[in-house]
Amino acid sequence: MLFVRPICALLILFVVALPGLTHAQIDDDQFGAWYMYFFDAPFKSSQWGAQGDIQYRIWDLGGELEQLLLRGALTWRPKSGNFMLTLGYAHLINGEFGSSSKTKSENRVYQDAVFPQKIGKRVYLRHRFRFEQRWVEDQDFDLEFLHAQRGLYADE
What we know:
Layout: H1 4-21, E1 32-42, E2 48-59, E3 64-76, E4 84-95, E5 103-119, E6 123-136, E7 142-154
Antiparallel strand pairs: 1-2, 2-3, 3-4, 4-5, 5-6, 6-7
């Protein structure tokens, strides 16, 4: 147990430093912003609820559209289980980088299964499995299974 804290500190340092070690091509003169609003609203005295988000992503702080994402869903939490199922729809408008004002639209229907997991007294994991059906302008229909997307958070 004596080495647990130094090992955790080194692991956190590695994860934080890793993006700086990669060689991605970045335009240093290009600034942007992501504006996001998320909501999760269980219906009173019910296993059902609603959730969604609005994400507006721009390049060049002047408002050059990168992506607009509008997503809404119906959720269900069974009384006997510690998980949540979701059925949702998303509409995206994707812009092109540069001076072009061309956009492409995309529609998605998706299903999620979310499973929380507690490790010890203060660490929680959240596993999300997502299956998406995508209709992108000028492209063929596409299916994606996005699995094992995890969120890690600590109880404060």
